Amino acid sequence: MHRIEDRHSPIAAGSGGRARRSTPLGVSSSHIAAFGIITSALGREPYLRALRDFPTSLRTPNRTQLGIFSSPAVAADVAAVTINSRDVAEMKSCRPGDCVVKLPATDMRRIHDEMNWSASPSDLQAQLNAFARRRLVEYMTDYRQRGDSAMVIYDDRGNMNMRASDAFAAQFAESPYIYQTVPSLRSYFTSYPHGALPAGAAEVFFWSEDVMPRLRPILSVTHLVVFTPPELPGMTLAASKQIYANHYFEAAVDLTAVVDRDPGIYLVVLRRYRFDNLPGGILNIRGRAIGALRDQLTLDLRRQQTTTK
What we know:
Helices cover 33% and strands 26% of the residues. It is an alpha+beta fold. The protein has a nine-stranded antiparallel sheet, with helices on both faces. Strands 5-6 form a two-stranded antiparallel ribbon. The longest helix has 26 residues, at 121-146. The two termini are 36 Å apart.
């Protein structure tokens, strides 16, 4: 594994605090790790009050769609889910081992059998929208009941039977310091839904569509928990776990630590991604994705620096 470091264009200092930003990327054949840190004069509690306002805090400039799942999940939660026209046009040729969208083989077969492929593009998009909305509600319901064992098996590329739960476990295994430093986080995610939510925690499940330059829009489902680890009372964690994505990523973990300082706070961000078999070469989709993730972290840190002044 090598490191790509971006040491230029430091973020402007916030009121009462100086930004310290580094966005190193650790890159291997299938994994990326990105890290950043800023300081803010805002206290931890005011920051967390804003963060726990999920309908507001989860909206970002590159997030074109967002929906929060009710408990239990219902159709209204996903009424805005829309399959983009580029994916619609290519779904007819989708088959296990070669599909434009990350799906299990069972869903590929259902789509092949249930869609009216002679319909107009707009009608076909409506059919695929209805299928996706129904499956997202079913998927969220199943995940809440069975946790990791309900997570999707990706059959879209050559590496058939890629379990999202295995990819997630590998992400945490590559960050042993998280296990060691915050065992309560590992315990909660790996035992979900059987473990108790940490005291004072806030939890949300949401779907979103995120757009990054020169990549397809990414429809994903995320499990986010915000809590103060009992072993580290001087900090609060916002930890998100990708439980589905329709493009590029088999797993993604996003950890933001809000750490007390005097005065204000540190915001420490660690993001880890596991790719599927993205092509390099002349298309260089892998390179585009790496660049987009690096740039997105920089933009997110700048936005945080501005909003926490």
